[in-house]
Write a structure and sequence with these properties.
The protein has a three-stranded antiparallel beta sheet with strand order 1-3-2. It has a domain of 96 residues: Winged helix-like DNA-binding domain superfamily/Winged helix DNA-binding domain (Arc Repressor Mutant, subunit A), CATH 1.10.10.10. Strand 2 and strand 3 form a beta hairpin. With 157 residues, it is mainly α. Helix 3 packs across helix 4. It contains six helices and three strands. The radius of gyration is 18 Å and the shape is globular. The model has no long low-confidence stretch (mean pLDDT 90). Helices cover 67% and strands 8% of the residues.
């Protein structure tokens, strides 16, 4: 079990790196040189929503300091619009500018094409769903472990 578990951890790391390389290749294909893959994924995950930096961090599982730096760069480059909350002056709300939404649309199209290609290659929705279920259980286990709790693996949802 330990060997399989460690293989899963290594695969998760490799998949993340490869996904970022694919996103960067798409940005290069589009001639977008001022964004990195992480910044593009922040835009994609924000989409047409308006969120605070904290909400973006929670939804995207980005590290806080990296989000702050990347948000600052995205605002400077004109991909994000940042405004103070009218109710809480400490909070700022973010939304994609039209320039940011253009990146979102390109990435959405890329992911749609990839999903179709996966389906055509035999990796169907059910297979991905089962994989996601397993990874969510590992994520739940890690979250509980981080908090000092170690529930039985079968009860982690």
């Amino acid at each position: 079990m330990k060997e399989t578990y460690l293989e899963t951890i290594a695969l998760i790391e490799r998949l993340h790196r490869q996904c970022m390389e694919v996103v960067k290749a798409e940005l290069d294909r589009l001639g977008v040189r001022d964004l990195n893959a992480v910044q593009a994924m922040i835009l994609f995950n924000l989409g047409d929503l308006e969120l605070t930096v904290g909400e973006l961090t929670q939804r995207g599982y980005y590290l806080g300091s990296n989000v702050s730096y990347n948000v600052k760069k995205l605002v400077e480059l004109g991909y994000l619009i940042q405004k103070r909350s009218p109710h809480d002056k400490r909070a700022t709300h973010l939304r994609c500018s039209e320039k940011g939404l253009t990146i979102c649309r390109h990435l959405d199209e890329m992911f749609n094409n990839q999903a179709q290609e996966l389906a055509n290659s035999g990796v169907d929705r059910q297979t991905l769903s089962q994989t996601n279920d397993s990874l969510q259980r590992v994520e739940g286990y890690w979250a509980a472990s981080r908090l000092g709790a170690r529930p039985p693996f079968s009860s982690v949802a």
